[in-house]
Design goal:
The longest helix has 31 residues. The chain has six helices and no strands. It has 107 residues and is mainly alpha-helical. 76% of the residues lie in helices and 0% in strands. The chain starts with a helix and ends with a helix.
Length: 107
Amino acid sequence: MLVFGMLPFWAKFRSNPTYKRALPGLNAAAVGLLMASLVQMGAAIREKNTKPEGPIPREASTCIGLLAFWAVHWLKIPNSTVTLIQAPLVIVAGGVIGLLAGVVGMK
């Protein structure tokens, strides 16, 4: 709602020198809050794992999640066809790795 209320005044607000100086700090604060909430959600998920001694233990699922995040965001494959289907490939690969971790009994 605040964004829609600000739209009519956006051009004038963007040209304000105080806002221009404050914008990098505001962006950094927003990113910091997002990272803090991500860490808290990750910790809560690890604590509320319904099967801590189940087929895929906490450590293995955390490692698989981190590898999937890395593969989606930083792994750049030069083939343009593969790049278009990169996220689905990472999801399928994560599922296969999870199944393998459960079969092997990775602890």
